[in-house]
Amino acid sequence: MEKVRIGIVGIGAISGIYLENITKRFTQMEIVGVCDLIDERAKSAVKNYGIPKQYPTMYEMFADDSVEIVLNLTRPYEHFEVSKAALLAGKHVYSEKPLAATLEEGKELVRLAQQKGLLLGGAPDTFMGAGIQSCRKLIDDGYIGDPVGAAAFMICRGHESWHPDPDFYYQHGGGPLFDMGPYYLTALVNLLGGVQAVSGMAKASFDRRMISSEPHRGEEIQVRVPTYVTSMLQFDSGAVGTLFTTFDVHYWTQARLEIYGSRGTLIVPDPNTFGGPIQLYRPEDGTRREVPLTFDYSENSRALGLADMARALRTGRDFRANYQQTFHVLEIMESIYRSSREKRMVSLESSYTRGEPMHHNPLDGILD
């Protein structure tokens, strides 16, 4: 297969694993060039990964006919403008999560992609890893019977104690729901199917945060988004789920994701990872048993979704991390906020159909 040519906009903290995996693992892609507002970051990527070009601006990248897919790794509130400009220039787009910072922005991106016949999708792609895929098979094969509910909790005290540039997590497009919620919601819809209605309550417990990490140690962040969000999800299947995300709580662990069925319970790995332990509880023996992973990609495989999109671009098949999924997740999150504001349950307009499960290929990094 002819390699698919990628241009990357945004060389921040998340870019390292993408650069590593695209250049060394997912060999059916190649990076044509990179662009970042901070010149040193782009220069470093060019040098360390042997990338041919550094573009002065993203618009020069979008004007380059050799770029087929734009990988948008900018900050959440920048996703819309970057993705929109790339689509208008005729480029396929794969974006970090979320698809956009508002539902209206997401609708416009989807409209543009449909109008121009372009591929549009994005992160998270962790659902394609061994952990969630193994859980999907266990559920589909009836190991917990009929799913009746789910509980998902992402609990932490925020990112200002460790992240080098944590301010954007508390600005438009950030917060625990829009930052971490996509991992949990993407896992949930892949395990249980689409969501038809939500209810939620949201608040910001603290209006300011103090950074304790370098290089901004001692600086204050003004919080502009909810940081304590609790919600209920009604799935198309009839299952009912709980989603709780917060940056306000002192807690000894971060992730909890459980699927409850008529015949047992499945403890799902942290959806921010590709692997992790799976535990199955069945009443027959009254204990939790660890279940082996039965799919590929158990380690950090970010860019897996991009590789799947690249394969789809060459073969004409669908790809798994497409805009149907990223838009549905965006609408769920926006509807949770809307429910909190309007003090009522909100029905969703978008529908969701699960994509194909992953298939084994003995050649690592090469997708079906």
Detailed description of the structure:
- This protein is α/β, with parallel strands linked by helices and 368 residues long.
- The chain folds into 2 domains: 4-122, Rossmann fold, CATH 3.40.50.720; 129-291, Dihydrodipicolinate Reductase, domain 2 (2-Layer Sandwich), CATH 3.30.360.10.
- The protein is 30% helix and 24% strand.
- It contains 9 helices and 17 strands.
- The strands form 3 sheets. The protein has a 9-stranded mixed β-sheet with strand order 16-15-14-13-7-12-11-8-17. The protein has a 6-stranded parallel β-sheet with strand order 3-2-1-4-5-6, with helices on both faces.
- Strand 4, helix 4 and strand 5 (92-95) form a beta-alpha-beta unit.
- Helix 5 (103-116) packs antiparallel against helix 9.
- The longest helix has 20 residues, at 323-342.
- The model has no long low-confidence stretch (mean pLDDT 97).
